[in-house]
Design a protein that fits this description.
By secondary structure, the protein is mainly alpha-helical. The chain is built from 9 helices and no strands. This is Integral membrane protein (TIGR02206 family).
Length: 253
């Protein structure tokens, strides 16, 4: 593929859901996250300086993902206040997750953990994307969304910022505050960031949640269910099982 075609915002093959390239992208992301989990203890055992450098480099890379996207919009002549500002939930999560890496803020991590992971995961599975591999936008899209999940789980698994039930509430508050601010911007700009004024043109999970504005209420319910399940399945239940096993070993003779 010629360099100009790789960046062309108009002359590109359309994205196809669950195509070979889409499946490969999801598989690569899953493998990367699995390796991070498997080597979490080794990463945790490294020096403070090494972990700090990992956080800094990952944060800079994440900021770079948004910078190159904005540069591509300008290069392709498609930059617009109505479509190009980083006001989508995943764009907001990308930038704030980078800040979490740099600051180790427990409050921000708590607010972002479930909202950022759930939003990025849904975007990866049902992308609002018009470009197939190996177009720049395809690569940037999946890389940026993978980084959101990686950063938040790195801070959880390696830096040990453990969530509580309050994290579910914090994530719900974050989503609603972000939606309120973005909706105001949507009205001012006549835009549709976070799909708060109508559904995306491509297929998405919103198609299952009813017409506008019913699907926004459906998103609220879906978010609460997803955040609660994520906390229960990946944190609360494993922690309870671990504690019971410890108590059981402590009573053996």
């Amino acid at each position: 593929m010629a360099f100009s075609s790789w960046l062309d915002p108009y002359d590109a093959e359309p994205f196809i859901f669950f195509s070979k390239s889409h499946l490969w992208a999801m598989a690569c992301i899953a493998i990367g996250l699995l390796l991070t989990y498997l080597f979490r203890n080794e990463l945790r055992a490294t020096s403070d300086r090494t972990r700090r450098n990992i956080r800094i480099y990952l944060a800079l890379f994440m900021f770079g993902c948004e910078i190159v996207l904005q540069a591509w919009y300008i290069y392709g002549g498609v930059w617009s206040l109505r479509t190009s500002l980083p006001l989508e939930l995943c764009s907001i999560s990308l930038l704030l997750s980078g800040i979490v890496l740099l600051t180790r803020s427990r409050l921000l991590h708590s607010a972002l953990l479930f909202a950022g992971i759930a939003g990025a995961l849904m975007a990866i599975v049902t992308p609002n994307l018009g470009y197939a591999y190996p177009h720049f936008r395809f690569i940037q899209f999946f890389t940026a969304h993978a980084c959101i999940i990686l950063a938040l789980l790195y801070m959880t698994w390696v830096e040990q910022l453990r969530p509580t039930w309050r994290s579910v509430v914090a994530s719900m508050v974050f989503v609603n505050v972000a939606a309120f601010v973005v909706y105001i911007m949507d009205v001012i700009l006549d835009a549709n960031y976070m799909f708060l004024r109508h559904k995306p043109d491509t297929a998405s999970v919103l198609d299952l949640l009813g017409p506008y504005p019913v699907y926004i209420l459906g998103e609220e319910i879906l978010a609460m269910v997803m955040f609660s399940l994520m906390y229960g399945l990946f944190f609360a239940i494993p922690e309870r099982v671990k504690n019971r096993m410890k108590r059981g070993r402590g009573t053996t003779f």
